């Protein structure tokens, strides 16, 4: 049972509703459509949509699309489908900051008229220099004291396309000596002759995020604007701008700590690099921490929501153990995934007494095993799940079968409970007790085939006069189905090397160093993050639907790949291991 949802944000909301400060809670999830959503965004989604649900409010989905060169319709579409897949519903229509461009422009004009904004014609270089730094006051722009009329005319010229990119900006007029750099006359509009995925070529000036965001919140009647801690020092400007425009009951911004996960990048920019470098197959590669990747990996929406609930909401920065995420995903699969048998590293076993033994299968007590002989196949029926009513599956048992190579050791290590020359008897899962009589090797000494016999009395019965330790899975060699089975490890090694803080001020890092990112990724990439097996699986798996999840007994949880799986050549991705010593 997940811990009771209670955190500082929920306390604030509870108080604000109780005191009547707000009649109804309104939150928003405000992604920029410049990439795919990742696990960090899931935390924000679960919080914003979660509190809306819990407190009888609503949550808007708003695209913060003020940076047209980085944004695309493709990202808008994927974000919408990811939010829906996670099980959340936004209020009414999807919203766009770009849908408010007209209104935002009018508010910018209002600020100029009030003497709260001015057009600066310094170069961007000069603006940067004159901003000063920590402990160093900024210098007023020579354009700062221009008249309202001149500013209105220049802003109108900016809008009319009379300036080239970078030649003019609109700035809020606050204080060039303010200790908070975000208050030193921040830029609120810039010239950018760029096509926008929503507004086309209508605009050549675009508002800055810090201007558009608070005003979009206020316009939508957002009550609690929840964001991550790196926006804490943007809050003074947030409050300044909604006050100057004159909202009566303005939204308030609250910050919580972002999710950092070990072995995991939660920066869209670096995830994009991974895709561009071709080290993954795309944004939806099952190793990617994107919602699209995790979905293809077979993670459940329920597991992701449970994870977010367990990590909770605080102001404390930290790095969450990846196994915590796996714990939640595993818990969501335990009572839902059908069982099946798949042999990843096939070792051929020929059962010398097969015909004589299975001929007597009909005469055996069959309350635990249903068996039906048809020619040279003994069809065994088993429930798809030990406790849930998911129906039955038919498993063919034949003269040649495959077991996993790792279930037979010529020189077993201490404590080995599977097959070896000394311990040569084992239970075949759902079937007979098998005894190895002979082991065939190739010229290098590698075991290539086992010759074995089965105890005809052990179908659904314990062997007489002895105990058999161990159960192994198997698949018919003649009726099994070839399949691609993919096992995963972390995409990145050495998690302590990931500087999660370096991701924080990405919005400011328009000049991100691609070469440095590439080098970093190369140095930290796990060369073994993907292992592909040519496996043999039980034939019932031909009928698996793309996206269907299974527990391959004694292996892992797997999902039929959403894109590549088909009944001719099934393809399965490992979701998560069956067990872990980790306890949340
Ligand atoms: P990135 O840094 O990967 O580009 P971003 O912060 O720019 O992500 P946005 O699309 O602007 O992404 O963010 C949408 C919302 O998701 C914001 O409110 C942001 O605070 C939140 N968010 C982004 N990353 C995380 C994270 N790691 N943990 C929690 N919330 C996050
Ligand atoms: Mg961003
Ligand atoms: Mg960011």
TrEMBL record:
Enzyme Commission number: 6.1.1.18
Pfam families: tRNA-synt_1c, tRNA-synt_1c_C, tRNA-synt_1c_C2
SUPFAM superfamilies found in the cross-reference section: Nucleotidylyl transferase, Ribosomal protein L25-like
Superkingdom per UniProt: Bacteria
GO cellular component term of the entry, any: cytosol
Coiled coil: none
Glutamyl/glutaminyl-tRNA synthetase class Ib anti-codon binding domain location: 337-454
Reaction catalyzed: tRNA(Gln) + L-glutamine + ATP = L-glutaminyl-tRNA(Gln) + AMP + diphosphate
tRNA synthetases class I (E and Q) anti-codon binding domain ranges (all copies): 471-561
GO term, biological process aspect, one: glutaminyl-tRNA aminoacylation
GO molecular function, one term: ATP binding
Residue span(s) of domain Glutamyl/glutaminyl-tRNA synthetase class Ib catalytic: 24-319
NCBIfam families associated with the record: glnS, PRK14703.1
Family (UniProt): Belongs to the class-I aminoacyl-tRNA synthetase family.
This protein's name: Glutamine--tRNA ligase
Organism for this UniProt entry: Moraxella caviae
């Amino acid at each position: 049972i997940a811990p009771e949802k209670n955190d500082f944000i929920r306390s604030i909301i509870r108080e604000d509703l109780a005191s009547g400060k707000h009649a109804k809670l309104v939150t928003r999830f405000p992604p920029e459509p410049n990439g795919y959503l990742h696990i960090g965004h899931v935390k924000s989604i679960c919080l914003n949509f979660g509190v809306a649900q819990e407190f009888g409010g609503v949550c808007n989905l708003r695209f913060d699309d003020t940076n047209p060169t980085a944004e695309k319709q493709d990202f808008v579409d994927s974000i919408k489908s990811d939010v829906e897949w996670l099980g959340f519903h936004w209020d009414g229509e999807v919203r766009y900051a770009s849908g408010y461009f007209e209104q935002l422009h009018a508010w910018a004009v209002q600020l100029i008229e009030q003497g709260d904004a001015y057009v600066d014609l310094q170069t961007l270089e000069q603006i940067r220099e004159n901003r000063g730094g920590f402990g160093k006051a900024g210098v007023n722009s020579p354009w700062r004291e221009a008249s309202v009329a001149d500013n209105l005319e220049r802003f109108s010229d900016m809008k009319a396309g009379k300036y080239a990119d970078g030649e003019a900006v609109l700035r809020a007029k606050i204080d060039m000596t303010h200790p908070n750099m975000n208050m030193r006359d921040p830029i609120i509009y810039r010239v950018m002759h760029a096509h926008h995925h929503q507004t086309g070529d209508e605009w050549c000036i675009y508002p800055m995020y810090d201007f558009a965001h608070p005003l979009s919140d206020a316009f939508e009647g957002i009550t609690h604007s929840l964001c991550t801690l790196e926006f804490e020092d943007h809050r003074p400007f947030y409050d300044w701008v909604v006050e100057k425009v004159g909202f009566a009951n303005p939204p308030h911004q609250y910050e919580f700590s972002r999710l950092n996960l070990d072995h995991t990048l939660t920066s869209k920019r670096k995830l994009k690099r991974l895709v561009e470098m071709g080290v993954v197959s795309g944004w939806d590669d099952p190793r990617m921490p994107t919602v699209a990747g995790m979905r293809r990996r077979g993670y459940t929406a329920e597991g992701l929501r449970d994870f977010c609930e367990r990590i909770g909401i605080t102001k404390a920065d930290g790095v969450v153990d990846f196994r915590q995420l796996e714990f939640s995903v595993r818990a969501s699969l335990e009572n839902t995934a059908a069982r099946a048998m798949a042999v990843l590293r096939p070792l051929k076993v020929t059962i010398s007494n097969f015909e004589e033994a299975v001929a007597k299968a009909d005469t055996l007590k069959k309350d635990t095993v249903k068996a039906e002989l048809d020619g040279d196949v003994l069809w065994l029926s088993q429930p798809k799940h030990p406790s849930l009513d998911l129906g039955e599956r038919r498993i063919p048992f034949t003269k040649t079968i495959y077991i996993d190579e790792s279930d037979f050791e010529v020189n077993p290590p201490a404590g080995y409970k599977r097959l070896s020359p000394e311990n040569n008897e084992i239970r075949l899962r759902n079937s007979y007790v098998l005894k190895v009589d002979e082991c065939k090797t190739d010229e290098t000494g590698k075991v290539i085939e086992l010759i074995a016999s089965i105890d005809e009395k052990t179908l659904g019965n314990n062997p007489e006069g002895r105990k058999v330790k161990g159960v192994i899975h198997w698949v018919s060699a003649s009726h099994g189905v070839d399949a691609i089975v993919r096992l995963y490890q972390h995409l990145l090694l050495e998690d302590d090397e990931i500087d999660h803080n370096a991701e924080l001020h990405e919005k400011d890092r328009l000049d991100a160093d691609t070469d440095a990112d590439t080098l970093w990724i190369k140095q930290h990439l796990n060369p073994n993050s993907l292992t592909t097996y040519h496996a043999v699986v039980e034939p019932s798996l031909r009928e698996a639907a793309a996206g269907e999840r299974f527990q391959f007994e004694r292996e892992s949880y797997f999902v039929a790949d959403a894109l590549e799986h088909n009944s001719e050549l099934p393809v399965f991705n490992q979701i998560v291991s069956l067990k872990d010593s980790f306890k949340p």
